[in-house]
Amino acid sequence: FPTCDKPKDAVKALKKKLSKNCNHKEIRLTLSLLDMCIENCGPRFQSLVVKKDFCKDKLVKLLNPRYNLPIDMQEKILTFIMTWARGFQGMVDVSEVKEVYLELLKKGVEFPSSDTGRGGPKSSPSSANPAKRSLLPLPTGPTLLLTPEQIGKLYSELDMAKMNVRVMSSILKENVPGSENPDDMNLLQVFRKGQYSLQCKFKL
Hints:
Blueprint: H1 7-18, H2 24-40, H3 42-49, H4 52-59, H5 71-85, H6 95-106, H7 125-128, H8 148-174, H9 182-202
Helix pairs in contact: 1-3, 2-5, 5-6, 8-9
C-alpha cells in the first residue's frame, strides 16, 4: 500500500466518498481504505481524521438510522472512534475525537468490545451476520420496571389477544350484516371487553 504523500488530499477524498452516501458497498470499501491509511500513513494523516469535521461530521453521521448500515459497519465506525480517542503513537492531538467519544457514551451508544484492533473490528459474530439495526439509543421516556413474572404474564395475555383477533376475524367473515347469529355477537362482545382490558394493562 503506497504511503500518503498528501494527507489532506487523502482525507478530502475520503470525506467525499462518505458524504451523503447511501451505497453500503462504497461505504464498506471506504472504511476499509480508511483502516489501511490509519495503519500506514502516520501522524500527519491520523491528526486529520481525529478532527470533528471528519470523525463526527462524516463517520458518526453514518450511524443515523436513515443510512441503515449493517451492524458490522456500525461497529467498525464506533471502533474507530473508541480506539482513536485512546490515542496514537506519536504526536497526535486526539482531544476532538475524545470529545466525540464521550458525547456518544453520554447518549448511551453501545460500543463494541475493546478486544478489537486499532483500525476496526476484524471479525465477530455480528460481522458474520450483519443484521441491519442501529446502535444508537432509542428515544427514552418514563421507564416501567417489570418483574419476570409480570413480563411472562403480559406475553401470555398478548398471545391470547392474538388468538382472539383471529377468532373475531373468522366470526366477522361468517356473519352477513342483518342476519347475525346472536351467539356470535355475544362472543364478539366478550372478546372486545378482553381486548380493552389488555390495552389498559399495556398503558400502565
